[in-house]
Design brief:
- It is built from 18 helices and 14 strands.
- It is of the alpha/beta class.
- It folds into two domains: about 200 residues, NAD(P)-binding Rossmann-like Domain (Rossmann fold), CATH 3.40.50.720; about 240 residues, NAD(P)-binding Rossmann-like Domain (Rossmann fold, 3-Layer(aba) Sandwich).
- The protein has a six-stranded parallel beta sheet with strand order 3-2-1-4-5-6, sandwiched between helices. The chain has a six-stranded parallel beta sheet with strand order 11-10-9-12-13-14. A two-stranded parallel ribbon has the order 7-8.
- Helix 1 packs across helix 3, helix 5 packs parallel to helix 6 and helix 11 runs antiparallel to helix 12.
- The chain is elongated, with a radius of gyration of 24 Å.
């Protein structure tokens, strides 16, 4: 089947490359000529492990191509995916659907063959209804259906998630559209990947509900970590103890500096706005958003306290190791490091930072932070070293080398990747999250 993927960002590019790898003929479409030019030259716009190789292999096989011409790209496509961004709208926090609706308008103007238009973008409940209305009014007379097919890709593991999904959610009650979507995902039948067909509005809500629930788990264990520090308990033991309960599960129970990234912050906010619009407040999600935002600055204050307090912190040097919101990505959207760095700068500290992939995107977001070439360069003359993101490169630091570089042997581990006794045995003062 020919598939058109409108939008060549994170979701569109990963999805398009994986569909091509399944054997489909995929055209990725984007308005940005420079992005398409770079993709045609084999240059990825994002960092995702394995993506460059996957794209190159399918381009070479003739199953994957890139264009700015939407009319040509959707011509003959049985499924047209909308995979453009839906960022939080300035001023009110609602999802900005202008890109989605612009694509619907252009698809409607150029649709010449029967096709299922699939919203892959994360969109609020009822968006599919509006997409359907726009296309019907723009180009009536051609058979089409609008379906919802939310993505559940983890940055850093997106290819594996796409090819071995926990579930595939498809929102449509149209029999013809179900047949087309079954054909799209037929290659995954061999893996027995469960496909859940729902009403379109249910599918749209599933994505937001899933992300809000995961954000809640993260925020809950972070609050338990704070309590553990007060009472002398170990949050890692607490997490293991509750995670062994099958009703709870062990995933997303790792204490840290708060969640960030492209999904949880904007999706929890969009869910709140949807709930407000329908006069059905979601108080738990509301609390999660507030607690997570305050936690990021609190982590910065934790470092300030390690420097001796607000007065003593002025003029001291802090080494931040890791800037992206999680490892194996270059995504800096709502990363906790941004608020942490700003808190330190506000306290008068000098901040040097290193991240294996994220510094190019981090630099304009952190104008007062010195971006350096390695963890050890960041640690030079530092009064405290702070692990913010759990990149593998930071899991086996050479403490003898660090000792020779730092001004003061102090390590604050905001991801709990080290054993406290082992670090202290190497001569470092050590602080972590929720471990007494």
């Amino acid at each position: 089947m020919k598939i058109a993927m409108v939008g060549s960002g994170y979701v569109g590019l990963v999805s398009g490359a994986c569909f091509a790898d399944f054997g489909h003929d995929v055209v990725c479409i984007d308005k940005d000529p420079s992005k398409i030019e770079r993709l045609n030259a084999g240059i990825m716009p994002i960092y995702e492990p394995g993506l460059a190789e996957l794209v190159a292999g399918n381009v070479k096989a003739g199953r994957l191509s890139f264009t700015t011409d939407l009319a040509a790209g959707i011509d003959g496509a049985g499924a047209i995916f909308i995979a453009v961004g839906t960022p939080s709208r300035r001023g009110d926090g609602h999802a900005d659907l202008s890109f989605v609706y612009a694509v619907a308008q252009e698809v409607g103007e150029n649709l010449r063959h029967p096709a299922v238009i699939v919203t892959k973008s994360t969109v609020p409940v009822g968006t599919g209804d509006e997409v359907e209305r726009i296309i019907a009014e723009t180009h009536p007379g051609v058979q089409f259906a609008v379906a919802s097919n939310p993505e559940f890709l983890r940055e850093g593991a997106a290819i594996g998630d796409f090819k071995r999904p926990d579930r595939i959610v498809i929102g449509t009650e149209d029999a013809w559209a179900k047949g087309v979507m079954n054909e799209v995902y037929r290659p995954l039948f061999l893996n027995r990947s469960p496909i859940l067909f729902t009403a379109r509005r249910s599918s749209e809500l599933i994505k937001y509900a899933a992300n809000a629930f995961l954000a809640t788990k993260i925020t809950f264990i972070n609050e338990m970590a704070d309590l553990c520090e007060k009472v002398g308990a170990n949050v890692q033991d607490v997490a293991r103890g509750i995670g062994m309960d099958n009703r709870i599960g062990a995933k997303f129970l790792h204490a840290g500096p708060g969640y960030g990234g492209s999904c949880f912050p904007k999706d929890t906010l969009a869910l709140l706005k949807t709930a407000e619009d329908y006069d059905s407040p979601t108080r738990i999600v509301e609390a999660v958003v507030k607690v997570n935002e305050s936690r990021k600055r609190a982590m910065g204050r934790k470092v300030v306290e390690a420097l001796g307090g607000a007065v003593e912190a002025r003029g001291k040097r802090v080494a931040l190791l890791g800037l992206t919101f999680k490892p194996n990505t270059d995504d800096m959207r709502d990363a906790p490091s941004i608020a942490i760095a700003q808190t330190l700068i506000d306290a008068g500290a000098h901040v040097a930072a290193y991240d294996p992939e994220g510094m190019a995107l981090a630099a304009p977001l952190m104008p007062g932070v010195a971006m350096v070439g390695s963890a050890y360069e960041a640690a030079a003359d530092a009064d405290v070293v702070v692990i913010v993101t759990e990149w593998d490169a930071f899991r086996a630091l050479d403490f003898a080398r660090l000792t020779a570089l730092v001004k003061a042997p102090v390590l604050i581990d905001l991801r709990n990747i080290y054993d406290p006794d082992e670090v202290r045995a190497k001569g470092f003062e050590y602080a972590s999250i929720g471990r007494g």
